[in-house]
């Protein structure tokens, strides 16, 4: 499949990996919008947020624990951070493999 994130997961193209768990991999965004910008990506190729409901409860718990772990490791948990998912055309989803952005390390503007 021609998916850049599947290739990162398979180790076929390099990325700065910050964490790996049973169901997810987290790596630094190649074009960061803030001092800390990490992407959390399910190892299974899902496209949209709604497909996460196919994951079992422990995998969903793992996701939120991982986001929290990364925010703490990046030292942005206290100062504040944003986690977001772009879904589909209007949100400007570029990579059609579901990913959670974790963004912090500076004062963030309003979403819009
Ligand atoms: P989207 O707009 O789909 O939510 O965000 C895709 C994100 O993936 C962008 O922030 C972009 O910089 C990042 N990205 C795209 N290709 C690569 C890549 O090959 N490696 C890494 N590390 N990040 C990428
Ligand atoms: Zn993929």
From TrEMBL:
Gene3D superfamilies named in the record: HIT-like
Domain of life according to the entry: Bacteria
Pfam families named among the record's database cross-references: HIT
Protein name: HIT-like protein
Motif (Histidine triad motif): 97-101
GO terms assigned for molecular function: catalytic activity
Active-site residue numbers: 99 (tele-amp-histidine intermediate)
Domain HIT, chain residue ranges per copy: 4-112
